[in-house]
């Protein structure tokens, strides 16, 4: 598995986790800790997507 494939897989997992937290937030709300995790996952996803895009643009 190449580095790019690992980053893509990580993004898929982050998107799935973010989606589940959004659903939970819509139904019951998030606790402080869950909200913190949610925000960090979004930051990680944006960072990872940016890195992937820069790698794709170089190729």
TrEMBL record:
Q: Which residues form a coiled coil?
A: 4-58
Source domain of life: Bacteria
Give the UniProt keywords, A-Z. Answer: Coiled coil
Recorded protein name is Fur-regulated basic protein FbpA
Could you tell me which species this protein originates from? Paenibacillus mendelii
What lineage does UniProt assign to this protein's organism? Answer: Bacteria, Bacillati, Bacillota, Bacilli, Bacillales
């Amino acid at each position: 598995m190449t580095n790019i494939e690992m980053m893509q897989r990580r993004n898929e997992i982050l998107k799935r986790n973010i989606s589940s937290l959004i659903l939970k937030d819509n139904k019951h709300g998030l606790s402080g800790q869950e909200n913190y995790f949610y925000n960090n996952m979004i930051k990680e996803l944006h960072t990872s997507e940016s890195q992937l895009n820069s790698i794709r643009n170089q190729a």
